[in-house]
Write a structure and sequence with these properties.
By secondary structure, the protein is mostly helical. The chain contains 16 helices and 10 strands. The protein has helices at residues 43-58, 65-68, 72-83, 89-107, 117-129, 134-153, 180-188, 194-203, 208-212, 256-267, 288-302, 310-325, 327-334, 339-345, 353-365, 384-387; strands at 13-16, 22-27, 33-35, 219-220, 225-228, 231-235, 238-242, 250-253, 390-391, 402-403. The protein has a 3-stranded antiparallel beta sheet, with helices on one face. Strands 4-5-8 form a 3-stranded antiparallel beta sheet, with helices on one face. A hairpin with a 5-residue loop joins strand 2 (22-27) and strand 3.
């Protein structure tokens, strides 16, 4: 009688467990024998699993299961340490706060490989149940998404669980767009020298932190230029000087009267080139909440206005410039690398413009030019080089050298 033939398996091993099920083990690329993540009812099922695992290894798709056992807490700490040198100080503090307060308490002890889209969906739902704002939830999700994407990129897990997750919608808020005269009333209602700071928000489009960080060396009174190359931000109660948002440094032209007033202020300013233009009475850098309560809100009230924020002045400036000089010029003034940011968050149609367009369109229909002299034939537009400023390389402490072509944007 012929004996039972022993199966020859070319890859891995299969053994029967006391339970009657079968365990499969396979050698990884490093030669270490590893067990399958589950047991099988038959040897055929185990062999099929081993075949798929062998193909993964041969095609370079194999991931070490031990890597996926790393906890979210450990990997998020390693990820944050790796990316922090490329982040602004305020962003670092924000990421750390979101990880410590929202990600780790709920998911920190979970293994990376155990997370699924439903896990993330439940986490988002729990934050909504607790009453967290849509903005806070979306910020936490974005950080977790970056952490998990990094785990995929480093072969810790095969795919991110942050996919197909529905996030709460952000409430639609519109900036309060003021007229230039309304903004002028706010400037006139402010105490000195904070009237100049407010004027820079409204008529140069600076961010509040950029205005707080202006120094004597940044002002070219004779040329009428302001160099925006720093931002003052508050992170966890600590004031930090850093580059402007998105690292967009820029040189701005201001009107002659504003430049002259800045010049008079510089004459009274103590200290050297690095002296801040605007400080507390004790000479300390300004903090947003304190400054707004002490100087900005009273100026708004003195102007007879309500519900105006410092950011509204920047949005108003972007709207005025975009309406008259185009979105690209507005984007330059506001320090945006992409004009879509300008149109999405800042520039808004001015009241009455749609009526003017309708009147002009009716004139065009009749074959006439409108009041602005829109020609009937092709329009010859200046090349970008003819209309954009050409700026020499600017370094702090060096003489500003600027050649401006074809007027002021």
């Amino acid at each position: 009688m012929a004996g039972k033939r022993k199966s020859r398996r070319g890859f891995g091993r299969v053994r029967k467990l006391p339970s009657g099920r079968f365990q499969a083990r396979y050698p990884g690329p490093d030669g270490v024998l590893r067990p399958a993540d589950r047991t099988f009812a038959t040897t055929t099922d185990a062999d099929r699993w081993l075949m798929r695992k062998r193909i993964e290894i041969e095609e370079g798709r194999w991931l070490d299961p031990a890597e996926g056992q790393t906890t979210v807490r450990d990997w998020s700490a390693r990820w944050l340490a790796a990316v922090s040198p490329q982040l602004k100080h305020k962003t670092q503090a924000s990421y750390r706060s979101l990880i410590n307060s929202l990600i780790n308490p709920a998911l920190g002890d979970r293994e990376l490989s155990s997370l699924r889209p439903i896990t993330v969906t439940e986490w988002v739902g729990a934050m909504r149940t607790k009453g967290l704002s849509a903005s806070r939830i979306r910020q936490a999700y974005r950080v977790l998404s970056q952490i998990m994407r990094s785990a995929v990129d480093n072969d810790m897990i095969p795919q991110t669980p942050c996919r197909g997750v529905r996030l709460p919608r952000m409430p639609q808020t519109e900036p309060h767009i003021l007229t230039p005269l309304e903004a002028s009333r706010i400037v006139k209602g402010a105490t000195k020298p904070h009237d100049l700071l407010i004027a820079l928000l409204a008529y140069a489009g600076l961010r509040v932190g950029e205005a707080f960080a202006l120094r004597r060396v940044d002002i070219d009174v004779s040329g009428g230029f302001v160099l925006v190359d720093e931002n003052l931000a508050e992170a966890n109660g600590t004031l930090v000087f850093d580059t402007p948002k998105s690292h967009q440094k820029r040189l701005l032209r201001v009107g002659p009267s504003l430049a002259e007033r800045l010049g008079r202020h510089l004459e009274t300013l103590p200290g050297g080139d690095d002296a801040l233009l605007f400080t507390t009475p004790g000479g300390k850098p300004l903090r947003y909440n304190q400054w707004r309560k002490a100087y900005f809100d009273p100026a708004v009230a003195a102007a007879g206005l309500t519900d105006v924020t410092p950011h509204d002045l920047r949005a108003s400036h972007g709207t005025w410039v975009a309406d008259r000089y185009g979105v690209m010029t507005a984007a330059h003034r506001l320090g945006h690398s992409n004009a879509s940011v300008t149109t999405r968050h800042y520039a808004r149609p001015l009241a009455g413009r749609d009526d003017q367009v309708a009147e002009a369109a009716d004139s065009w229909l009749g074959g006439h030019e409108d009041d602005d002299g829109v020609p009937e034939g092709p329009v010859t537009r200046p090349r970008p080089a003819e209309t954009q400023p050409r700026l020499a390389t600017i370094n702090r402490g060096e003489r500003r050298s600027v050649e401006w072509s074809n007027g002021v944007p």
